[in-house]
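Support request from a user on the community tier.

User writes: "When I paste my structure tokens into the form, the page sometimes reloads and wipes my input. The last time it worked, I copied everything first. Here is what I submitted, just in case something in the input itself triggers the reload:"
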């Protein structure tokens, strides 16, 4: 379907509406031509529509940021991981589109981007108006910059990227430092969890929480674990999958964030014992339900064997904290608490970095700079000792 808009510069903009974008809204393609007769416009529109259908239509410099993003997602991101594509969509929908969706790509200035970054840093959360974290702002700016790089080098529409030389406000490490659980708070949390661990309704959640607290796995990595990934003889876990929920996409199983996130880590013997108990519980459920049991092979499953929804344990944990009047925290923060444990045990930063699946020690140091000392130890044995000490207090 074609429509025409007569511009102030004496030209005519042809708009072709064809297909839908990822969010279900119509896709529109634009082409500017000279002010020609109606019959000639119809011919131009027909040729343009043919190019759109064939996928050979190119955007012009007057295209909007929204058009650029649609083209970028369709043609540049087709081979990326689903989780990466999902993150791009979230950053665009929440941080970029509300400000620049209808902005012409050749009209967005560096000053406007600086003002946008400043706004995100002061009140960027759409739902609450609270400031966004520097990392979130950096990721949103990086996506916008990547889109412009695509417009410059792939589409050859522009010559300059307005996202260059934009500074991201630095976080205040003193005020932004994570409020991790103290050792006394860990003792209380662990004891309360142990008090409920034999309840079949809670056993899966509690086991997963202990795994995260004493291995540092990401939530998605725990949800992606299958029994075949766990070597109960050698006390190791092989991490090469994650299972996550992505807004507007659903639950997906994918490879971890980076190549370094594919790793094998050791587990303390008490975690091994908990995993064996959980596996036995699943075996009992399978015997009771027989053909009705869906043996998916995952560690995190429902009573009927189907893979657990990735956020179920998070929701259970939040209710657990509230029920026992414990300090609010998140499951992901337990990964940070694990890093704090390792720091207290004197584990080298390079070993912590490998265990957490960070790309390099710089990332580990940026997040946990205030934690680490340079001494050597054996991680799994130390964690066993640490757990036993806490459990006796």
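"...and here is what came back when it finally went through:"
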């Amino acid at each position: 379907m074609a429509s025409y808009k007569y511009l102030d510069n004496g030209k005519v903009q042809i708009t072709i509406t064809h297909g839908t974008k990822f969010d279900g809204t119509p896709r529109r393609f634009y082409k500017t031509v000279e002010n020609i007769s109606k019959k000639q416009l119809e011919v131009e529109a027909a040729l343009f529509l043919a190019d759109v259908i064939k996928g050979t239509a190119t955007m012009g410099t007057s295209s909007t940021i929204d058009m650029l993003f649609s083209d970028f997602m369709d043609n540049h991101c087709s081979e990326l991981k689903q989780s990466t594509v999902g993150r791009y969509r979230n950053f665009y929908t929440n941080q970029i589109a509300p400000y620049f969706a209808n902005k012409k790509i050749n009209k967005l200035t560096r000053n406007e981007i600086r003002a946008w970054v400043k706004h995100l840093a002061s009140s960027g959360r759409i739902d609450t108006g609270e400031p966004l974290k520097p990392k979130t702002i950096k990721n949103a700016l990086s996506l916008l910059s990547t889109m412009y790089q695509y417009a410059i080098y792939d589409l050859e529409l522009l010559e300059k990227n307005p996202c260059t030389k934009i500074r991201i406000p630095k976080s205040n490490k003193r005020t932004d430092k994570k409020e991790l659980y103290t050792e006394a708070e860990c003792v209380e949390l662990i004891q309360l969890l142990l008090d409920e661990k034999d309840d079949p309704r809670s056993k899966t959640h509690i086991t997963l929480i202990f795994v995260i607290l004493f291995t540092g796995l990401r939530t998605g990595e725990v949800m992606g674990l299958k029994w075949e990934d766990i070597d109960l003889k050698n006390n190791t876990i092989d991490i090469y999958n994650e299972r996550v929920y992505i807004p507007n996409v659903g639950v997906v199983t994918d490879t971890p964030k980076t190549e370094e996130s594919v790793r094998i880590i050791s587990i303390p013997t008490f975690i091994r014992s908990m995993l064996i108990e959980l596996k036995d519980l699943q075996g009992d459920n399978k015997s009771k339900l027989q053909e009705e049991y869906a043996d998916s092979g995952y560690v995190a499953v429902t009573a009927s064997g189907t893979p657990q929804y990735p956020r179920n344990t998070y929701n259970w944990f939040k209710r657990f904290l509230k029920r026992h009047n414990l300090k609010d925290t998140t499951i992901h923060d337990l990964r940070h608490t694990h890093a704090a444990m390792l720091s207290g045990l004197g584990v080298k930063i390079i070993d912590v970095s490998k265990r957490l699946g960070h790309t390099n020690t710089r990332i580990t140091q940026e997040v946990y700079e205030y934690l680490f000392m340079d001494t050597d130890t054996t991680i799994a044995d130390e964690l066993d000792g640490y757990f036993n000490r806490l459990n006796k207090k």
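Agent notes: The reload is a front-end session timeout and is unrelated to the input. The two ends are 73 Å apart (CA to CA). Residues 370-377 have pLDDT under 50 and may be disordered. Escalated to web team.
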